[in-house]
Design brief:
Blueprint lengths: L2 E5 L6 H8 L1 H9 L4 E5 L16 E5 L6 H6 L2 E4 L3 H9 L3 E6 L8 H10 L4 E4 L3 H7 L13 H11 L4
Helix pairs in contact: 2-6
């Protein structure tokens, strides 16, 4: 069953959960052949019911000790732009669509997402452009991010965040 895993990490990002479960977005996912949607909703106030999205199998939970299995089972990961979530998904070799929370103040997530996108490792959007991004995305343009190079990743983050 073709699966999308959505993670917000330890944060609250209800806007992403609302956006991914709206009928237009679910339709965009099913048009691409996705049949299962697994949501890790973190500290958010929204935990969609299993029957709230017709045409897909929906599972939702707040936290697990590890999301590695959900990432491994996913054909597509949709994530907030947290460095840990991005690194874990990219390290697992998964296609990654990052949804930047444009309502955060001093949002360094955008810089990281933009740099990883420029290097062809992920696609990114905001909640307002999520549905259209899902309709038009071309995952074949993505290149694998080579795991196991923490120094390179640290340098990359410094560069993306303007520290270096």
């Amino acid at each position: 069953m073709k699966t999308v895993f959505v993670t917000v990490g330890t944060t609250s990002f209800d806007e992403l959960i609302e956006s991914i479960t709206c009928p237009e977005t679910v339709q965009a996912l099913t048009a691409r052949g996705y049949e299962r949607l697994v949501l890790q909703v973190g500290r958010g106030s929204l935990v969609p019911a299993a029957d709230s999205c017709p045409h897909v199998t929906l599972e939702a939970y707040r936290f697990k000790d590890s999301i590695a299995e959900d990432i491994e089972q996913a054909d597509l990961v949709i994530s907030h732009a947290g460095a840990g979530s991005c690194l874990e998904s990219l390290g697992a070799g998964k296609s990654l669509l990052v949804v930047v929370n444009d309502k955060l103040m001093n949002n360094h997530q955008l810089e990281m997402a933009r740099q990883l996108h420029m290097d062809s490792h992920l696609l990114y959007c905001t909640c307002s452009t999520l549905t259209e991004t899902l309709r038009t995305m071309d995952l074949s343009v993505l290149r694998h991010f080579l795991p196991g190079q923490p120094k390179n990743f640290a340098n990359f983050l410094d560069k993306a965040l303007g520290v270096q």
